[in-house]
# Entry
Amino acid sequence: MRRIKVGKHYISDADSVFILPEAGVNHNGSLKRAKDLIQKAAEAGAQGIKFQTYKAETLVTKSAPRFWDWEGEQKKEGTQFDSYSILDKLPWHAYKDLSSYANELGIEFISTPFDEKAVDMLDALGSPAFKIASSDLTYLPFLRYVAKKGKPIFLSTGAATLGEVEEAIRTIEAAGNRQIVVMHCTLCYPTEPKDANLRIIQTLRRTFGYPVGLSDHTMGTAIPPAAVALGARLIEKHYTVDKTLGLSADHWLSIDPIELKQIVEHVKQVQIALGTDEKRVFPAEEHTYLYDKRSLVSTQAIKKGEEITTSMLTGKRPGTGIPTKFFDLIVGSAAQLDIPEDTTLTWDMVTQRTPLEFETLRSPAARIPEIV
# Structure
């Protein structure tokens, strides 16, 4: 699995999950609100903040129909152009201020460009990475243009076949760029949990060998930690400072700063909890292992020299004596001393069938597995 450097951060299995709140155009054209989005993302513990950079006239035709229905639109029956021409009002010279502000707060300033001029502007600002929207996954000339900038690419894969994802990746690689994070995405706003299909994260990891992320459009905070458990190492989620704001259709389906902080904390916990895939007794279990497991215990008084029978033995806590897995071996042995009822048996209390068995089973390794 590759390790991708994004500004001062890294994305790989060995690094902390990169949390990227997607502010998009939820600034509603306001520089002040854009800075507020950055500040609250930094306070929540996010590694980056992402916006969208476009002009309506280079993104859609004037007659392109909307594929969403939201009562807050200026004209409910309008076109994509009607919406985007309202939302593209943040002047591009403001991006320099926003980038500097994000750097001051220690988070990465990233945006999704939708045309070549936006790519050039963001590149000149020193943006550490580019995000490619799912809608542009098959726009191969644009992918080549972005790839040649030599910066990491977060490649969204919504509404695409595996073959189309491969074609996009090969196009980027052919342009000399192998700094890719493949983003699983369901291109539906909002996405119902039944449509999230998080197992695709594992498919993308196996197939392409690049770090995989999730561009999440579900409501709430439950899905990102689950994605991390399945191997996602970058989480992008629509984000606003106020879900009641108008103009942008994104506000109501976005998370707010409180929810963002919850995701940051839950993702940290999940990543720590993943631990190792090696099954063994862990240091945290050592005390419990000794006192929660069962040992062989006498059900009655046993005289010295008496042969131990099945009815004389049971298993009880603690696990400081002969492990219960040696029940059959102890049956038939002789008591080395008088053993009172309800006594935890130890190896020196019984004789074994052979001296070799006795010496082997009496060792600490026979009682407690190695704890690493």
Q: What stands out?
A: Residues 257-274 form the longest helix (18 residues). The mean pLDDT is 93. The chain has two domains: 4-274, 283-367.
